Amino acid sequence: MINNITLAERFEAQSARLKSVAYRILGSTAEAEDMVQETWLRLSRAGAEDVENLAGWLTTVVARASLDRLRSRRSRREESLEEHAIETESVDRHGPEAEAMLADSIGHALLVILDRLAPAERVAFVLHDMFGLSFNEIAPIVERTPTAARKLASRARQRIREPQEVPKATRGLKRKVVSAFLAASRAGDFGALLEVLDPNVVLRADAFALEMSAARQAKGAPKLEPETRGAEKVADVFKGRAQAAQPALLAGAVGAAVTLGGELRVAFAFATENGKVTAIDIIGDPERLAALNVRLLDE
Q: What pLDDT does 159 receive?
């Protein structure tokens, strides 16, 4: 029989993954922590003697709990999708809990886009496309057949690719911030970069972007890391760079992109707040680029 200490240790080994699942479904660190705690309470009550695949059991429980929370949130008239999107943009980026959930993250851009999806669509997409669960595993979570679960994920991908309507005033303000950032980067103006960057800005790059950056690494230039925090460090990375970057729409939101020979190579997704850049996600993964439906804008 497995004692409580061993059970707690086994749960702790899965906790970071469970937080990541819940965070991507809900887009809220506080709610993700609630879901993980609820999962632990269910596990501690049920025990694990008859659970053959503990990781799968825990993922199912946290996903179901998150789906219920998502449905409950959507049903409350006083909480709009716009309000939730603002919460996603202002996630605490500094605590170890947030770092664990954002590790290997697709970044703020796609998290915000996921808010367009119906609850079951979002869960099916997250579990299959981000965590590799089969549709046979997803079906009972979303209370559908495997075929219907597959259709949910497919519909989610289609909706993600659709351009997002952003108010012109909001888009205009963000474009000014992004344009100021690109101009300062190209000019190598460290001071101007600091002016447009939030002091606690976070820069993330996916594996494809890191590989491309390493291949073009200039002698003496700062190395692009998977994650960089703080205005001075991020400004140092971008000083004198972004020469080929152009303003672009990423699923309807203002960002930037780099093309080579007419082929889209990299996109920069920006999160902004109060006229400052709070997060930058460098995306080089072709599948992610396709999902963002990148469209170049005139300078």
A: 79
